[in-house]
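Page 37, continued from 36.
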């Protein structure tokens, strides 16, 4: 699984899964994540072997500077590690996966929930995508299932 994360709002910009990632596949994911000169100035990444020559050339061609974390130092990329932990705890530890397509569908559903409804403390209990908070006089709270019923979001509905 590859995840491209915007650190300011903890928003997952792009993800994909494959059983056997290569430097070429990873480089292509970077192009898909940042089309038409939308790449950021810096790319923070670990030292995984999948970031080989193909990937490094693609990063350079997109005009990004790579910032590498120290070996065996996941705390240097804490936002990405926290998102990966959330994916595991909130989603993947709760289901049995059948194949890559099933994982892709599940993650798509989870990221929809994550961006619109999950409220991290680090963002002052706001979601990565802002949404209005309705006052109690707008009606009763109704639960709506998310991620196949693993999670729920609540909205006020007029009675």
């Amino acid at each position: 699984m590859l995840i491209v994360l915007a650190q300011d709002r903890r928003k997952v910009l792009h993800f994909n899964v494959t059983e056997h990632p290569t430097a070429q596949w990873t480089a292509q994911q970077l192009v898909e994540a940042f089309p038409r000169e939308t790449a950021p100035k810096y790319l923070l990444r670990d030292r995984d072997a999948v970031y080989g020559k193909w990937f490094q050339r693609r990063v350079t061609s997109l005009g990004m500077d790579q910032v590498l974390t120290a070996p065996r130092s996941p705390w240097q990329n804490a936002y990405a590690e926290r998102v990966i932990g959330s994916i595991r705890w909130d989603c993947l530890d709760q289901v049995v996966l059948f194949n890559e397509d099933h994982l892709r569908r599940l993650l798509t559903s989870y990221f929809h929930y994550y961006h619109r409804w999950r409220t991290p403390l680090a963002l002052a209990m706001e979601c990565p995508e802002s949404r209005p908070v309705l006052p109690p006089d707008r009606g009763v709270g109704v639960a709506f299932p998310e991620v196949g019923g693993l999670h729920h979001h609540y909205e006020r509905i007029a009675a």
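The chain has a mean pLDDT of 90. Flag for discussion at group meeting. The longest strand covers residues 140-146.
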